[in-house]
Write a structure and sequence with these properties.
145 residues, mainly alpha, 434 Repressor (Amino-terminal Domain), 7 helices, Cro/C1-type_HTH, Helix-turn-helix transcriptional regulator, Lambda_DNA-bd_dom_sf
Length: 145
C-alpha cells in the first residue's frame, strides 16, 4: 500500500467520521475516544489512521465499518486491501448488482435454515447472538461518494 492510498482511505474515513457526528477536530472534542469505545478498538488505531501513519488491521476495519454504518466490503475496497473483483456483489435472479443489499437474516431464520431442532433454537440464538456485532444506532443514510 502506498502513502497515497493510505492518504485517500484516511481522508474518506475521516469524512465518514465527521458525518456521523464524531468531533475529531478539536483537541477536547472526544470524538476519537468515543469512536474507539463504540467500535471496541484502541484509540491509538484511530489516531494512527487519521494521522496517515498506518492502515487499521482487518478486525479494526470491520468494527469501524459497523460503527460508521458502511458495508465492510466498501471499507476493504476503499482501503486497497481487496478489489471489487475480489468482492463481487451477489447478483440475484432479475436484479442488477447495484440493487440495494438484502436485509440481514434473523437468528430465527438462520436456525430454521440450518435445521436446528425446535428444542435447541433458543440455545442456538443465545450462542450465535454472541458472535454478532452490536446493531449500529440508526443514522441518516450516506450520500453516494
Amino acid at each position: 500500500m502506498s502513502a497515497h492510498d493510505l492518504d485517500q482511505f484516511a481522508a474518506w474515513v475521516e469524512e465518514l467520521i465527521r458525518r456521523r457526528g464524531y468531533d475529531i477536530d478539536s483537541p477536547r472534542g472526544g470524538g476519537k475516544s468515543r469512536l474507539a469505545d463504540e467500535a471496541g478498538v484502541h484509540r491509538a488505531a484511530i489516531t494512527r489512521l487519521l494521522q496517515r501513519q498506518s492502515m487499521p488491521d482487518l478486525e479494526t476495519t470491520r468494527r469501524l465499518a459497523h460503527v460508521l454504518d458502511v458495508p465492510v466490503r466498501d471499507m476493504l475496497i476503499r482501503s486497497g486491501r481487496l478489489s471489487e473483483e475480489d468482492l463481487p456483489l451477489p447478483v440475484t435472479a432479475g436484479k442488477a448488482a447495484s440493487a440495494p443489499p438484502l436485509r440481514r437474516m434473523t437468528l430465527e431464520e438462520a436456525a430454521a435454515g440450518l435445521g436446528v431442532p425446535d428444542e435447541q433454537v433458543e440455545m442456538f440464538i443465545k450462542v450465535a447472538g454472541q458472535f454478532l456485532p452490536p446493531a449500529p444506532a440508526r443514522r441518516a443514510p450516506l450520500a453516494q461518494d
